[in-house]
Specification:
By secondary structure, this protein is an alpha/beta fold. It folds into 2 domains: 30 residues; 193 residues, SGNH hydrolase (Rossmann fold). The chain is built from 10 helices and 5 strands. The radius of gyration is 22 Å and the shape is globular. The termini are far apart.
């Protein structure tokens, strides 16, 4: 092989190596995608939710290596037969279409309403497991987390802590065990004090949303 041909082969090899390294670098630089699934507590009933809702605050805490999107829908239930099933909302499709690497689910608060829980509460465990498995089966095989929803400081809109504590939370724990996913204990982490809630006693305010984001970020950082 003459020197000119050797030089050409070396240049081609070096170019291929550099292209390969660039591809690896670009792949590793792709942000981890997070779909935040939930109701109005996730959507954010706060001033400027595009800045202050917990999915947005979560993204800021985690930094540029992550991209978090808000897939909350006000009034949504986990129950498929609830008065506003999350399953039928556009945000459900949005959460899936994002091709997430991580999914954080925070549903159950609206399921405590008597007309939901008393009629269909027996389906909550089965519906929760089903949603978890839908996300687990996505092509990206995301890590799925499920939150214990925040406390209800005072009943409003039919939402009540009795059904949350006695029904929703035990079912979430069972679903998490059955599907081998991690629980994020927002219920235990966000103090049940009005200074962290809107005047309705159900929706966290800006301070409360920030606390929830920190609780969730801490778990994600520990696991990733």
């Amino acid at each position: 092989m003459n020197s000119g041909l050797k030089r050409s082969v070396m240049i081609c090899g070096l170019t291929a190596l550099l292209l390969g390294l660039t591809a690896v670098k670009n792949a590793s630089a792709a942000p981890i995608r997070i779909s935040c699934v939930g109701d109005s507590i996730t959507q954010g009933i706060v001033p400027n939710p595009q800045k202050n809702a917990w999915p947005v605050v979560l993204g800021r805490i985690l930094g540029p290596g992550y991209r978090s999107i808000n897939c909350g829908h006000s009034g949504a239930t986990m129950l498929k037969k609830g008065d506003l099933p999350y399953w039928k909302q556009p945000e459900y499709k949005k959460a899936i279409a994002f091709h997430p690497n991580i999914v954080v689910i925070m549903l159950g608060t609206n399921d405590t309403k008597p007309w939901n829980w008393n009629k269909h509460g027996q389906d909550f465990l089965r519906n929760t497991e089903a949603m978890i498995r839908v996300f687990q089966a996505l092509p990206t095989h995301p890590r799925v987390y499920i939150c214990l929803p925040p406390k209800v400081v005072k009943p409003a809109y039919g939402i009540n802590e009795k059904n949350l504590v006695a029904g929703v939370i035990p079912a979430i724990r069972k679903a998490a065990r059955a599907t081998h996913i991690t629980i994020i204990n927002v219920f235990g982490g966000l103090p049940g004090k009005m200074k962290y809630y809107d005047s309705d006693g159900v929706h966290p305010n800006i301070k409360g949303e920030a606390i929830m984001a920190r609780i969730i970020a801490k778990v994600i950082k520990r696991r990733h």
